[in-house]
């Protein structure tokens, strides 16, 4: 049974099932860049938000003030969203590195266990 289990684990590790780390790295980089671009694009919107004026401080003044507050709130929410996208890209990169390290450690432990006599359970 030990030989069968060990062989099955080795086949599973070499069967191509798992994370394709170069693709994950490219995707994490694109997410980080996209989030940064998103935040940068909002600079122009942030400059314009809150400055709406239709030349009337009378009846429409309250509506203009409410619109300006709403526009500023939306821009800040979009900026937060862009930061989250970039943060997810960074986290995906870290996760890929950790999985790669864990795969390497597991492979070394399995190879070492195959050389030991008897069953080894961790």
Automatic annotation (TrEMBL):
Name used for this protein in its record: Uncharacterized protein
Organism: Microbispora hainanensis
Taxon lineage: Bacteria, Bacillati, Actinomycetota, Actinomycetes, Streptosporangiales
């Amino acid at each position: 049974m030990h030989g069968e289990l060990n062989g099955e684990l080795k086949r599973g590790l070499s069967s191509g099932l798992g994370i394709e780390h170069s693709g994950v790295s490219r995707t994490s980089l694109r997410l980080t860049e996209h989030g940064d671009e998103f935040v940068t694009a909002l600079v122009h919107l942030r400059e314009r938000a809150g400055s709406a004026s239709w030349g009337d401080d009378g009846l429409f003044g309250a509506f203009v003030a409410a619109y300006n507050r709403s526009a500023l709130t939306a821009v800040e929410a979009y900026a937060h969203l862009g930061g989250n996208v970039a943060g997810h890209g960074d986290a995906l990169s870290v996760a890929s590195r950790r999985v790669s390290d864990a795969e390497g450690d597991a492979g070394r432990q399995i190879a070492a266990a195959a050389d030991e006599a008897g069953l080894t359970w961790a």
